[in-house]
Amino acid sequence: MIIRLLDIILSAAGLVFGMPVFILICVAGLLDTGSPLFMQTRVGRHKRPFVVVKFRTMKPDTASVATHLANAAAVTRLGHFLRRTKLDELPQLWNVLKGEMSLVGPRPGLFNQAELTNAREAEGVYKARPGITGLAQINKIDMSTPDLLAKTDAKMIAALSVRDYFRYILMTLVGRGAGDRIG
Q: How far is it, in rounded angstroms, from Cα 93 to Cα 168?
């Protein structure tokens, strides 16, 4: 309950105070790809589908596959910057505010990632809201290792405290960890 309240407060504040950055990135995205936002159906809490919103980092015609399976050449110049700074994740604050995600939780996978979905289901990961960051991200564990990722997600969910919540967010903001590796 307290984590959901923190999600609401922090995502609302991030959306309000981040608006100038959002506008700049949208303008840059229009110039880069003609389509600054990227929306994709992901696996959410209780395996319910939801549409995640991110800033586009790849060319619009890129196949809808897990990031580690995508062609590295598909990432745009702006996309490299957005991924490196993690600014591509900012629009997900809207998903957090709506209650589809948390700031901290397992990164939401795609429905075509059967191995990851099965591993997470076996570990009980889908009882939690997916998140923007978490234990796996700060330890550089991505979706290319589904069993390890599911076990790490389950470990985080079982022990998540308010202290850990802020620690994972802070570690992400200062650059610990990385996004999913590309191709």
A: 16
The 10s digit of each residue's pLDDT in 142-162 is 888 999 999 999 999 999 999
The owner of tokens 């990851």 is: 116
Which tens digits make up the pLDDT trace of 70-128? 667 778 999 999 988 889 999 999 999 999 999 999 999 999 999 999 999 999 999 99
Q: Is the pTM of this model over 0.90?
A: no
Could you give the CA distance from residue 15 to residue 47 in angstroms, rounded to a whole number?
A: 26
Say if residues 177 and 86 touch (Cβ distance below 8 Å): no
Closest by CA to 109, choosing from 180, 59, 10, 21, is 180
Rounded to a whole number, what is the distance in angstroms from the first to the last CA of the chain?
Answer: 38
What is d(CA 92, CA 17) in angstroms, rounded to the nearest whole number?
A: 15
Distance, in Å, from the CA atom of 110 to the CA atom of 155, rounded to the nearest integer, reads: 21
Q: Locate 94 and state its tokens.
A: 């809207």
